[in-house]
């Protein structure tokens, strides 16, 4: 097998926060999966001014030393490198959509889901509509724009329709609290989703990977929530800034979230629902879904998060590890599926 030239597509065309988040995960991925006998890694780093850089590493010093390039210059650079495959590491909306579409135009295969699907699932209400049509239970909700008045009686969960990491999410228990919660949510999105509050039993995340064309359910991750003083997850459950200004992942401490034993009775039914979501949405290579479990044990779809950086800290990688699959094996499986898809397109 010849060495694959893999381009890590890192950074953000949107803001510095997503640049930092992308760099955090991509650094870990490169460190964990570097194998000169298998891969020749290259890095493309995009900044919010939409300039491209091709640093030798993701250290701040190497990024600063790399020459900034325009899109046209970057395309020439990438083409000259004859890249075999791209590993998308961008979490902003342009990164998940426009830049993946660019790879399609350049006819360079990439691991992960297509730009149209990433755009669809980035909008929580649209993703809900698709899986609901496939028979998956979703909380009743309504989509609001500025000036709209919610008609659902509290308790409800208010969330921006297209924002991640629980930014702007609030549990509203009284009508009097609607205005403040909506104002905060609209700071993160032009549309806001108001959903009925599903009474808490548990809250879990389920990952699916494709191997040899078959859907494989991974061990569930459970979140630390309770019905008394922490009924929904918030931003602090996921990310924080360290004293030196870098981002860190609070959800990886084993306290706020943990892997369930596969023998847990919740595992099989949630995996089956997750596979239905994967098929309904038309996912490829892998998928990831959040579910609220009511006191009767019924899973309710909350949202899809269709990305994986193949860092050991990535949720799908952590789930795979819990089932005995290393991050290197996980990456190799995803690469195999990507190259199979590429070959099928040529036939």
From TrEMBL:
Q: Residues in domain ATP-grasp?
A: 128-336
Q: Which UniProt keywords apply?
A: ATP-binding, Ligase, Nucleotide-binding
Which Pfam families is this protein grouped with? Answer: Dala_Dala_lig_C (PF07478)
InterPro entries associated with the record: ATP-grasp, ATP_grasp_subdomain_1, Dala_Dala_lig_C
The molecular function terms in GO held by this entry are:
ATP binding; D-alanine-D-alanine ligase activity; metal ion binding
Sequence similarity? Belongs to the D-alanine--D-alanine ligase family.
Protein name in the entry: D-alanine--D-alanine ligase
| The species this protein was found in | Moorena bouillonii PNG
What does the organism's lineage look like at the top? Bacteria, Bacillati, Cyanobacteriota, Cyanophyceae, Coleofasciculales
